[in-house]
Design a protein that fits this description.
3 helices; alpha+beta; single chain; about 20% strand; four-stranded mixed sheet
């Protein structure tokens, strides 16, 4: 399932529905539909922030869509959700047989997640 991008305005956690980009040479702010991918020099906005967008004096705002609405789930989203539910409903697969542990390793004292192995005494 695709991840939901959030509004880039500070302290806003609503889902983004529009992308704002600037054309500095033309003093224009362009507000259009949510871009397919997040770009470093664009801003994703929620419905509320897209509707209230204003530009600095002397700038023009070009709105490519008159109304921005949150997009509903797509067919791909629904199929991914169905696959996830189907996968969660499957019985767990049997766990592989436990590996036999060496007696020296099994009797060694434990310290946290590490085990201390006694070395083999040297023969003279």
């Amino acid at each position: 399932m695709r991840s939901v991008r959030q509004c880039t305005r500070t302290a806003c956690g609503r889902p983004a529905v529009a992308t704002l980009t600037y054309v500095y040479s033309d003093s224009t702010a362009v507000l259009g539909p949510l871009a397919q991918q997040a770009e470093p020099h664009s801003y994703d906005l929620c419905v509320q922030h897209a509707d209230r967008l204003t530009a600095p004096r002397g700038w023009e705002v070009v709105r490519l869509l008159p109304v921005f609405e949150p997009a509903g789930p797509s067919k791909d989203d629904l199929l991914a959700l169905a696959d996830a539910v189907r996968e969660a409903g499957r019985p767990p697969e049997p766990v592989a047989a436990a590996v036999a542990v060496d007696d020296a390793l099994a009797s060694a004292p434990r310290r946290g997640h590490l085990r201390v192995l006694r070395g083999i005494p040297e023969q003279d």
